[in-house]
Amino acid sequence: MAEDIEFAQPPAAQSSALDRVPMRDEEGQVRHEFVEEITRAIAAVDKPLLREVVAELHEADLGDLIAALEP
Fold it and tell me: For the whole model, what pTM was predicted?
């Protein structure tokens, strides 16, 4: 009976924002593409995306993002 149990797999659309647009490259540096995506989201007032990203970031990562966004 236990063999008949199927587990729901999350659809790809429900993946983490940071999985879709990774923040850091292989060397641990903030990716330029990530900063561009966040800049675009800020300009477009994309609150859902911005909230999702901020909720997933560690405080230190958020600080790195803010530093990368500063002109």
Answer: 0.74
Alpha-carbon separation of residue 26 from 20, 22, 29 (angstroms): 16, 10, 8
Is 56 inside a domain boundary? Answer: yes
Structurally, the chain folds into a number of domains equal to 1
What range does the domain containing 44 cover? 28-71
Cβ density class 11-23: b for 16+ within 10 Å, e for less:
eeeeeebeeebeb
Partnered with residue 24 across adjacent β-strands are: 30
Q: Is residue 36 part of a domain?
A: yes
Tens of pLDDT, residue by residue over 11-30, are 555 688 888 889 999 999 99
